[in-house]
């Protein structure tokens, strides 16, 4: 087997392993933090207790900030706001703050609809020919009325069908948006929260050791 093919296969294997490993980047981040902490203890001539205290403080603050950032991102995805915006709104709603109230008055719209009224003036035919002609006129009139009614019913069905199709499309769009929101929350926010919690635990353990 040629060497370039072997090297290409090994490279693809390493690439897949790297992608699989990167999916657990919070674990890699906390492991890197522990390694850096150990290297600082071994390489620098510093008081270990003070170093533990400083690392505990930094990791706990960073972990708390990451948790708050994840919560803020989740709120932004779900409701389109943020913690700062909600805090400002809460402070602005303090009961002792005077606020201007604007009243908007709108007139009511009235719509009057009426049904279709068909009037037919009859006559009193005398002869057989007149009676047959009158009967044919009545049949033609009934046929016209039936065609008009059928066209109205068909138009109404088409309108309702289009409205139903629009509603189905709107519901499908809402479902897609909901799925996208759930995906963003589950994929993006969970790992950040996990890293923040792991940093808090690491800082607590380091503080206990100190």
Percent of residues in helices: over 70%
- How would you state the average pLDDT, rounded? 76
Q: Name the overall outline.
A: elongated
Counting DSSP H or I runs of 4 or more residues, the number of helices is: 5
Helix-strand string: HHHHH
Strand content: under 5%
Description:
By secondary structure, the protein is mainly α. It contains five helices and no strands.
Q: What key attributes describe this structure?
A:
210 residues, mainly alpha, 78% helix
SSE arrangement:
Blueprint (H helix, E strand, L loop, with lengths): L2 H20 L2 H19 L4 H32 L3 H10 L35 H82 L1
Helix pairs in contact: 2-5, 3-5
Give the gist of this structure.
The protein is mainly alpha-helical.
